[in-house]
Amino acid sequence: MTQDIRLSNKAQKVTSSFNWPTVSILLIIFAIPAIPAVFILIFVALGLGETPIQSEFINPVYYQKPVVIFTHGIFGILFFVSAPFQFSTYLRQRYKQWHRMAGCITIISGIGIALSGIAMHHMLTPDVKGARYLSLLAFSAIMSLSFIVGFYYAWRKSFTNHQCWMYRAIAISATPISLLVIEISLNLLFGQLMAYELIHQFLFDYGRVFVVVLNLVFIECFISKTLLSSQNFAARYG
User: Fold this and answer.
1) What is the spatial distance between Cα 218 and Cα 167, in angstroms, rounded to a whole number?
2) What are the tens digits of pLDDT across the range 107-163?
3) Average of pLDDT values for 33-50?
4) Res 236 pLDDT > 50
């Protein structure tokens, strides 16, 4: 009897926690591009008049095609303020209507980031094609598809599959930040070696696809060892 009560309490804890570790990590990760985006949008908006603001942080091209930068930036900010909190079990269960609304914002902004990223490439580096451009197209397609599949399972009320696919979508979305961390780390460790040029070129051309694979391997381990095991425990003892 005592053991059953203990197991029931543990199951309740599993299914009702705020999940601060995951939420906090995602907030930190997505703050890296989102916070600079806020200032970039402000500077671009203030500089759209006759005298554009000159700053080393603002690419002059932004003033030529503000629609692209505003689209990409706004989607990024919406994603930052909505996506991390989707992974709080407490918020999902207590505020279901909010979860649905914020989830729609996350999915729309995630797809918007992926597609507007292609437009950003054409705006900033129109002459760069080849493997790097194909990697960007593959990354954008995979990211968009993962959010679409996540929405499909939510619409079908297959919530376990929905949750798994949203974890995958978020892992894919973190690819640019993960790639940045990898590039900085490798530069600090091996930047003086001649072979680093080969590594740098590989990451420049294929880095997005390479990091997508790494992130998906990590998240699949997380899903199998943490998410699914917790749900199976709750289903068995809840």
Assistant:
1) 11
2) 999 999 999 999 999 999 899 889 999 999 999 999 999 999 999 999 999 998 999
3) 86
4) no
CA 140, 143, 146, 151 dihedral sign is negative
Q: Looking at beta carbons, which pairs linking 59-64 to residues 24 or more positions away fall under 8 Å?
A: 59/124, 61/123, 61/124
* Domain locations in the chain as residue ranges: 14-127, 133-238
Q: What is the 3-state secondary structure (H, E, C) of the chain?
A: CHHHHHHHHHHHHHHHCCCHHHHHHHHHHHHHHHHHHHHHHHHHHHCCCCCCCCCCCCCCHHHHCHHHHHHHHHHHHHHHHHCHHHHCHHHHHHCHHHHHHHHHHHHHHHHHHHHHHHHHHHHHCCCCCHHHHHHHHHHHHHHHHHHHHHHHHHHCCCHHHHHHHHHHHHHHHCHHHHHHHHHHHHHHHHCCCCCHHHHHHHHHHHHHHHHHHHHHHHHHHHHHHHHHHHHHHHHHHC
Burial of 139 (0-12, 13-18, 19+ CB in 10 A): buried
Tokens standing for residue 106? 């996350």
Measured in whole angstroms, the distance separating CA 120 from the mean position of its chain's CA atoms is 17
First to last CA, the chain: 14
Higher-scoring residue by pLDDT: 91, 238: 91
Q: How far apart are CA 44 and CA 25, in angstroms?
A: 29
The two three-digit tokens of residue 60, written as one number? 């002059």
